[in-house]
Amino acid sequence: MDKLLVEGGNVLNGTIPISGAKNASLPILAATILTDEECRIKNVPDLKDVSTMIKILNALGRDARREGDTIIVSAGQIKNHIAPYELVSTMRASIVVLGPLLGRFGEAEVSFPGGCVIGPRPIDLHLKGLRALGVEIEVKSGYILANGKNLKGRKIYLGGHFGSSVLATDNVLMAAVFAEGETIIENSASEPEVEDLARFLIAMGADIKGAGTSTLKVRGVKSLRGTEYSVIPDRIEAGTYMIGALITNGRLYLEHARAEHNLALIDKLREAGGVIDEVDGGLEVYRAGDVINPIDITTLTYPGFPTDLQAQMMSLAAISNGISVITEKIYPDRFIHISELNRMGADIVIEGATAIVKGTNKLSGAPVMASDLRASAALVLAGLVASGQTEIARVYHLDRGYEKLEEKLSAVGAKIWRMKEIK
Length: 423
Ligand code: EPZ
Fold this sequence. Notes:
Blueprint: E1 3-7, E2 13-17, H1 22-31, E3 39-42, H2 48-59, E4 64-67, E5 70-73, E6 82-83, H3 85-88, H4 98-105, E7 107-111, H5 124-132, E8 136-140, E9 143-147, E10 155-157, H6 166-176, E11 182-186, H7 192-203, E12 207-209, E13 215-219, E14 228-230, H8 235-247, E15 251-255, H9 263-271, E16 274-279, E17 282-287, E18 296-299, H10 310-317, E19 323-328, H11 336-343, E20 347-351, E21 354-358, E22 367-369, H12 373-385, E23 389-393, H13 396-399, H14 405-410, E24 415-419
Parallel strand pairs: 2-15, 3-14, 6-7, 10-11, 18-19, 22-23
Antiparallel strand pairs: 1-23, 1-24, 3-5, 4-5, 7-9, 8-9, 11-13, 12-13, 15-17, 16-17, 19-21, 20-21
Helix pairs in contact: 1-2, 1-7, 4-6, 5-6, 6-7, 8-10, 8-12, 10-12, 11-12
The structure holds ligand EPZ.
Ligand EPZ is lined by residues 23, 26, 93, 121-126, 160-162, 165-168, 189, 193, 307-308, 330-331, 373-374, 401.
């Protein structure tokens, strides 16, 4: 397995182009199942998770291929309705083919997605919403067997123990586009990526009101057409590099980054002592003064502080000049990065779903282990500011969600390189 080496103490200065959003690309690619016509999806990042979704579309019988930053899903018939274990087990977001398969064909067989290191990943809300539309669901030998022809629109409340659900909203939305009558999804997820999916479906001819809000209203239509669409920029990638500018006391211009997608993060970074300015359709980010102030964060569903930036913010808090409190309300176990940060000299203790972070200016490089996509990013950020060298193992986690990470960071002054595992 490849490793990343990071030489600490270098300041990040310059411009980073922000890629298309992974978490918008995945459901939008799944939504192409809803038409036999050609779709051209632009600004799609070249990531492992995107390649997995392309493989799933090809396994279903569609011809999906990449041309530069565009994925072309050629016209053609879906040949089968099975999303196989060997693909779904590598990416739990594959569950998002369930809704479009049911909406279009009334049947689907999708491997039950496993949990992952950030915690159990239940799908009760997905199944509740689909059953409300009239889908019969059985779980057998690790597969979800779903059947539901002639779905009927209903009012569905989709809030769960942790609030709204991004992929459950996506699945129910896509199952509802052809359902008879009106479907109202209450307490739907309002993340920009869910809004982007809704806008893509509208571009295909779906009748959807309330995109980007917590109530979606869908009127069933007869069919959807192929279309061309460009995916929004990745707000989590942008947020990660915003933190990179502050943690190294540098100055970065993030091309295409949109302030309105990261209001909670920007609010906290300003509190920490950052300056974030909107300039020419991107964001300029740097420190106002020399120190990083401690922060108090609770992760919530959008527009609250995103759980996908919690680990990265913890790396920044680790070098602040005070005590920070970070509470994880979406995935209470999402603290695997803490033990690795403490190996680098951070002083973090866990109290249930809350981490208490005592800032220090003495992070030191160490061999550490990546455990999930965003925890890996947190370790890279810590390595940028630690004294000496940090060696990050299991870097495949990063490759799932950050396009050209080493190239983008090296171009702005980081000393970072990949050590290929000799097979
Ligand atoms: C999406 O996952 C993202 N993934 C995750 O990003 C992100 O962390 C998460 O939303 C929350 O923002 C993609 O979009 C591909 P949820 P999703 O359903 O939809 C609970 C990354 O790093 N829940 O919104 O699977 C769940 O356990 C990834 O890019 C239920 O209880 O997340 C969690 O506690 C990691 N029942 C909370 O809701 C359900 O049926 C939010 O999960 C579904 C979820």
